[in-house]
Write a structure and sequence with these properties.
By secondary structure, the chain is mainly β. The chain contains no helices and 17 strands. Strands 1, 2, 3, 4, 5, 6, 7, 8, 9, 10, 11, 12 and 15 form a 13-stranded mixed beta sheet that branches. The protein has a 4-stranded antiparallel beta sheet with strand order 14-13-16-17, with no helix packed on it.
Length: about 210
């Protein structure tokens, strides 16, 4: 436990190897190492979000990222580094300009809103598994349960199908690599409108 009272800080650099829960912090940098478990709630991150650990889990809740984002392989650079990262987003806003991806595997899931696309994308190698929450509503904005959802890849191949739950929701997963992250996938709801197609790309908030 670490508590500051009547203290003013200009900049927080939070290097985490264990468990941490950050709440109501601004002007911070989050860097995850080893197998850290981090929750950042109601935080503003303007100085960097760095994923460098080995299977670490980082969750951003009701937070905003306005800094560079790095998902890197630090296995050979630091004894607490690795090349497998898990990022969960809940009601989070990303308004970043630069992202660097150079790691074997990263999973990103949850609800996120992108305010802008990245100006500087350095996707060197690795797989980013993105999980999209998809919600199907009727014309009265009521959820449609047990509705089939089809996912087509950028070569128009049907690569996945699923059905919505009682809340009209289903989770679609797309694996991006350095070769296909600029491509578009398609999400189709054939039972109700075969002509309606939702384009899905790396930066999509949610269909």
């Amino acid at each position: 436990d670490f508590t500051l009272i009547n203290t003013s800080l200009i900049y927080w650099k939070l290097l985490t190897r264990g468990k941490a829960h950050y709440k109501n912090l601004q002007d911070i940098q989050i860097s995850s190492w080893w197998n850290a478990t981090i929750v950042a709630e109601d935080c503003i991150i303007p100085y960097a979000l760095n994923l460098r650990g080995d299977g670490e889990k980082v969750k951003l809740k009701n937070s905003k990222v306005v800094s560079d984002i790095e998902m890197l392989d630090f296995a050979k650079v630091d004894p607490f580094g690795g090349d497998e990262h898990y990022l969960e987003l809940e009601n989070t806003i990303i308004d970043s300009r630069r992202i660097e991806i150079a790691t074997t595997y990263t999973q990103i899931k949850g609800s996120v809103k992108f305010l802008s696309k990245f100006d500087d994308v350095q996707y060197e190698f690795g797989t980013v598994e993105r999980e999209y929450p998809v919600k199907v509503l009727d014309s009265d904005n009521k959820p449609l349960k047990d509705v089939e959802i089809l996912l087509f890849d950028y070569e128009n191949r049907n690569v996945w199908k699923g059905r919505t739950d009682k809340n009209g929701e289903v989770f679609v997963t797309i694996n991006f690599t350095e070769k296909n992250w600029k491509k578009y996938w398609k999400i189709v709801v054939p039972e109700y409108d075969k002509t309606q197609v939702y384009k899905s790309d790396f930066w999509l908030t949610h269909p």
